[in-house]
Amino acid sequence: MNRIKNPGLFILAIIFTISLIFASLEFPRLADNHIQNNYSPLHFDQQSTELNTLKTNMWLENAHLKEIGYAGFFIIIAMIVIGFISKRRTIAAIGAIAMFLPVFGHFAITMFFLAGLGFLRVLWFPLADLSPWVMELGHIVYLPAIILSLPGKWFHFDMLTPLSVFFIAAGVILFIGGVFNWLVTKYTKNHVATSFLYKISRHPQYLGWILWSYGLFLMPVMQLKKGWGYPDSLPWMIATMIIVGIALAEEVQMRKRYGEEYLKFEEKTHFLFPVPKWFKKFLKHPYRLFFKTEKLKNHFQVMTVTAYYIVVLMILSYFYISFSNPQLFNPLLNKKWENQLIANGDLLINGESRRAKDIASMNLERHQQKALPALYNAIENGDPESRAFAIRTLWKIGDSIPNEIVIKTLQSPYGEEKREIINYLSSYQYEDAEELLLLNLKNEFGESKGLTALALANINSSQAGEYILQQFDDINKWEKMDFLLALGKLQYTPAFDKIVAQTQADDEQIRQAALVSLILMEDSRAVPVLEKMQHDDNKEIRVYAQYGLKKLS
Length: 553
What we know:
Layout: H1 7-38, H2 50-62, H3 65-85, H4 89-100, H5 125-130, H6 143-154, H7 160-187, H8 204-218, H9 233-258, H10 260-268, H11 277-283, H12 285-291, H13 299-321, H14 334-350, H15 354-365, H16 372-381, H17 384-397, H18 403-410, H19 415-427, H20 433-443, H21 449-458, H22 464-470, H23 477-490, H24 496-502, H25 508-521, H26 527-533, H27 539-552
């Protein structure tokens, strides 16, 4: 065995490796904290209320984040394509890394999905806008981690964190070792690196990056989040396949440049890591399928094979997630879904806790129309909690609720099921919705008064504005916020002065609701008010005021 000629350099390499591993784990957290403390204006769950959803949309439009996200995404795609076509692999590599960057967003411990490092997720808007589950079309990449975690499950030990750290550490070590190995080869003026790590892998740096990024991707920080974010699997899978494509393109160039010398190196050394010969042959089947060759000869062939494997992995991911999502067609699972419908229907009625019934209703929602018998059974035979969850699921599925159930539930003393039936009346064309909601608004003294006002606004009631304004001074803070939003959505101009008065309230949340109401009203009289609110102490209010002025101008 060769002795280490420079132990000082070797020790320095070890220290540098440990530092990079620590930085991989700690730097994202520090960066997220810094961004949130200094630059993130929103700190709420954007889906929790109708007001928060509107505020989120205003913030996105004011900052042009949708446009930035779409532009960034297509620039990344252009860099990858141009990098392959022009044979400038560095450009393609930068594009692949940029595609991966939003994975760091899952280190953002925040309620708002774009706060902190979460702002990187704007690059994924084009994918997420296609469909809510498109971002899961890379979930097949979880399979190696799930298999490696099985021993931990047998002993009731969560192995995900240790696995993540292992992949990060292994990736950093391989990357640094590969770079050092490559530099030594250049220093000794050899054409092809064949020693140390290059005896095992032809691309240890790329393998190092893949392992390091996989570890970050797996890091189970999502459990700390208070809000939600996009799944990371599809972008990670695409970024990784681009890196693999770059490695393939590099080999095309190396074979042309060094001929027999590199071909001998290929014969002795594995592409990324050791695999059985039969599997290696199987992985090359698109070479033979599309080009009738055993080795790729140009960048077009590399791009074709890379695209082919991205599509194949997406198809496999679809099949993989279909085992847990009944909305995705999989004929092998019909019996499983039938049994699950029966089990969740029973749990919705007889569950021992509120949480158990909630989960059962969410599982039933995924079955869509097939869940209707179980939901109607819960309304007929369940307790108020079960009925509330069943009604919520019915209106989310989009099925009509019989008139007698609507009237009976509106008269119920249980607030939760009453709220859900109000949401139903707000969301669907129901013949007597306005009459029932107005009656409820006049007689309601509980917590659903504000929700009733919003429901009337959502169905564009012609009579609601007057009733809402009459009751405005006799309600609590949360009802007042709903009333303000309802008056704005109705564009009820007699309430203009009342809304303006609320922009001077001491409570920031009331001021925000009043500001949103003024913007929705689209009344030019609001311009002086909005100009003044541009100088409010609250940064969030300043953002909405700027947005409102742009809309009115």
